[in-house]
Amino acid sequence: MIEIRKALAEELPIVREIAYQTWPETFFEILSPPQIEYMLNMMYNLKTLESHLSEKGQVFLLAEEEGEFLGFAAYELNYSEREKAKLHKIYVLPSAQGKGLGKKLIHEVSDQAKAKGQKSLLLNVNKFNQPAIDFYAYLGFKEAYREVIDIGNGYVMDDVVMELNL
């Protein structure tokens, strides 16, 4: 049985490991290997993850089955000082995809956000990641707008921002 629970600060290396195992397969057709490496190092170093947890108030969830960690999500309540939650990260190991884990993680985030009075849930997805866009649309997310975010080193995130009314 899959259990979804809040991650402890000392479990952030598990989050990092899942990202490092997931990103190359998820983005190999969308991003260059140097950009994948740059973004992983920038976004998933332990100092950054700890900052997101302690300073930015992000909540990390881990999905676990029989002692094996299969995926994670990270979200923030009252994003940009609005009654909207933001799903910053969600990744499931390639070997665990198709088990409904992503859906369970999103439902848990949605439930937590609703319980805290949030009106909607936002997320960013790469505009070329059609399988993810389709997955989010299947769950009820709608395109809200598009944005290009400069992340340094000559790279950008060219995203669709999707929103789910809660």
Please write out the topology.
Elements: E1 2-6, H1 12-27, H2 33-43, H3 46-54, E2 59-65, E3 68-76, E4 84-92, H4 101-115, E5 120-126, H5 130-138, E6 142-152, E7 155-165
Describe this structure in words.
The protein has 166 residues and is of the alpha+beta class. The chain has one domain (2-121): 3-Layer(aba) Sandwich (Aminopeptidase). It is built from five helices and seven strands. The two termini are 27 Å apart. The relative contact order is 0.15. The model has no long low-confidence stretch (mean pLDDT 96).
Question: How are the strands of the biggest sheet laid out side by side?
Answer: 1-2-3-4-5-7-6
Amount of helix? 25-40%
Strand content: 35-45%
CATH class: Alpha Beta
Cα distance spanning the termini: 27 Å
Low-confidence stretches at least 5 residues in length (pLDDT < 50)? Answer: none
CATH topology: Aminopeptidase
Query: Any idea how many domains?
Result: 1
CATH architectural type: 3-Layer(aba) Sandwich
Q: Main sheet?
A: 7 strands, mixed
| Number of E-type strands | 7
Summed over residues and divided by their number, the pLDDT gives a mean of: 96
Number of helices: 5
What does the radius of gyration come to?
15 Å
Helices and strands, in order, run as: EHHHEEEHEHEE
Characterize the overall form: globular
Relevant CATH superfamily: Gcn5-related N-acetyltransferase (GNAT)
Q: Which class best fits the helix and strand makeup?
A: alpha+beta
